[in-house]
Structure formats: structure tokens, C-alpha cells
Design goal:
The chain has 313 residues and is an alpha/beta fold. The chain has helices spanning 40-45, 108-112, 115-125, 144-155, 173-176, 201-209, 232-238, 248-255, 259-270, 287-295; strands spanning 2-6, 14-18, 28-38, 58-65, 78-82, 91-95, 99-101, 135-138, 159-163, 178-182, 192-197, 211-219, 242-245, 278-283, 302-306. The longest helix is centred in the middle third of the chain and has 12 residues, at 144-155.
């Protein structure tokens, strides 16, 4: 079958290749992919992986063969799922604990945009307890995770502050539920109860300085590639502030989050209460330029690639 693999010698560090068919474990369904999404984690990892690594977390498609242990959706079901790597392929073996049926009215592209970004938001927001009445900043809010986090936090009853790096990136965030949009966390009003932070460096330091006593800052990564320096004594004087760093797959196992939560996210999309915010969609034959646009922060929301025949990345 055809799949996209890493190739450091190509302009976008990817290439199409013929690879072996998946061999599903007993708790895995074999899925014929129709759409996959791009994540910044894929883009960043491609900068250091050697030739042949298989990128891709999110996949939406049709179950070709149900899991042998009887778990999960049946053959023929439309599904969306999450794997740690290898989703950019014609066929993917997906653990049923991370696989959910796509409701009627939800497109393959919308479903493919949800698993990694949506489940990241689910496990991050869960670290703060009930959201009603809380103040929640979301940094890098114009990205795929940020736009979903704004919507889910607002649905939970939070007052959401969205931070963006450039004024033009603020477009549409108010309509998604952000009560305030700022270019710098320092400019936000009030103190924060739960922060969803993914930039690291100075932005993480600013976020910690704005946490309320008893608040929790959840770190999803450090896209700035900067070290963070902050005033520990100031935090001690304020009292009981938690910094919690998340690795998605580990945190999903820790919290028991998977197929049910993904199904809930898809149901919200079907009900018109959650918009996956696809900012770029194209053929997987255009994956190289799409990755470049994602890396340059030229995509407002998620980037999704449709699996069609043939092509070169």
C-alpha cells in the first residue's frame, strides 16, 4: 500500500513509498483511510526523524476488518481514530480504545481534524475541575488545539482569554467563545484559574505570573523552542500553583480517556456545538506544501488532507 514516510533528502522531508500492509492486533480495527489531519507535532518530529519514519496521528475512514477481540465498531462503519504514528497511509490499524463511529452529517475531514487536537483539549481541561465561572487563557489560540480549547472551555462555562501572536490571527476567535483576545498574556485582565499553554518560553513565564492561588497551568509543549525562566519566590508567596505538563498518549491512559470522549466530541460536531475549524484542506498529494504552511503558522485552525489515489508528496 501507499504511505507517506519521512525522507530528509526531499524538500519537505517527506515522500510517498510502498510499505507493508498493517497487521492489526486483536484489539485493533483495520481502517481504510479517507482523510487525515496534520499536527505541529508531525511537522516538528520530521525535522529530526531519519528516513522511513511514518508520520500521522489522526485518521477518518471505513472499517475494513473489525477487531478480532470483538471490541469496537463493526466492518463498514465510518470511524475516526488516533494512533501514535503512521496514520498518513491508505490503511491504518487503530486500537479500538481510540476509535469512535462518525455520526451522520459529520464529514470525513471534520472527523479527521478532531482526535489529537480534541482529546488534547479534553485531558488538559480536565486538570482544572469544573469550568463554570473559571478564567481560562488559551495561548497560541489561533491554532487547531487553541480553537477547539476555546469552544470546549466556553461550553463548560469558563471566561476564555485567547492569546495570539499577530493581530490577524485573532480573526474569528470571539465568535468561537473568547471573551477577550490579547497579543500578550500580560495584557489579559484578572488572574487565571486554569491555563492551556503550548508556547513555552517567555509566554509560559507570563502565564505563571498571572495564575490565581490554587490555579493550574497545563503545558502542552513549547513551540517557541525557548527555555522558561520564572520567579519561583513570587509563586511561593502567592501559594499553591500547579504546573502540569501533558504528553497526550500517556495522559489519555492516565485519565482513561479514549473512544468515549472522541465519540462525545464527534457528537458535539454533529449537534452544531463544536466546529473543528478546518483552515486548510487538500489532497494528501499536496502534503508537503500543507506542512510548510502549518509550520509557518499560515493555517487558522486545522489542516486536513484527503486520501486520494497516487501522487507524490
Amino acid at each position: 500500500m501507499r504511505a507517506i514516510v519521512s525522507d530528509p533528502h526531499q524538500p519537505h522531508r517527506i515522500a510517498f513509498a510502498d510499505v507493508a500492509e498493517p497487521t492489526p492486533s486483536r484489539d485493533e480495527a483495520l481502517v481504510a483511510a479517507r482523510a487525515v489531519s496534520l499536527n505541529r507535532g508531525n511537522f516538528r518530529r520530521l525535522t529530526w526523524e531519519g528516513a522511513g519514519w511514518r508520520p500521522g496521528y489522526d485518521v477518518a475512514g471505513i472499517v475494513l476488518r473489525a477487531a478480532a477481540d470483538g471490541s469496537g465498531p463493526p466492518e463498514g462503519a465510518r470511524v475516526a481514530g488516533l494512533v501514535p504514528e503512521g496514520a498518513w497511509a491508505e490503511r491504518v490499524a487503530v486500537p479500538t480504545r481510540r476509535l469512535a463511529v462518525i455520526p451522520e452529517g459529520v464529514s470525513d475531514a471534520a472527523a479527521a481534524a478532531l482526535p489529537a487536537a480534541g482529546l488534547t483539549c479534553i485531558v488538559a481541561l480536565a486538570r482544572g475541575g469544573p469550568l463554570l465561572g473559571t478564567r481560562v487563557p488559551v495561548t497560541a489560540a489561533a491554532g487547531g488545539v487553541g480553537r477547539i480549547a476555546i469552544q470546549l472551555a466556553r461550553l463548560g462555562g469558563a471566561h476564555v482569554t485567547a492569546q495570539v501572536g499577530r493581530p490577524e490571527r485573532a480573526a474569528g476567535l470571539g465568535a468561537l467563545g473568547a471573551a477577550e483576545v490579547v497579543l500578550s498574556v500580560d495584557a489579559a485582565t484578572g488572574l487565571f484559574d486554569l491555563a492551556i499553554e503550548s508556547i513555552g518560553g517567555a509566554v509560559l513565564a507570563q502565564t505563571l505570573a498571572k495564575m490565581a492561588p490554587g490555579g493550574t497551568a497545563v503545558s502542552l509543549g513549547a513551540s517557541s523552542d525557548e527555555f522558561t525562566t520564572f520567579d519561583v519566590l513570587a509563586l511561593v508567596r502567592r501559594g499553591a500553583i500547579t504546573l502540569y505538563a501533558i504528553s497526550l498518549f500517556q495522559e489519555m491512559e492516565r485519565q482513561g480517556v479514549g473512544a468515549r470522549a472522541l465519540g462525545d466530541l464527534l457528537a458535539l460536531v454533529a449537534a452544531g456545538k463544536l466546529d473543528p475549524q478546518i483552515g486548510l484542506q487538500g489532497s494528501w498529494r499536496e502534503m508537503g506544501p500543507m506542512l510548510a504552511a502549518l509550520g509557518a503558522r499560515q493555517v487558522a485552525g486545522k489542516a486536513v488532507a484527503v486520501i486520494d489515489s497516487g501522487g507524490e508528496a
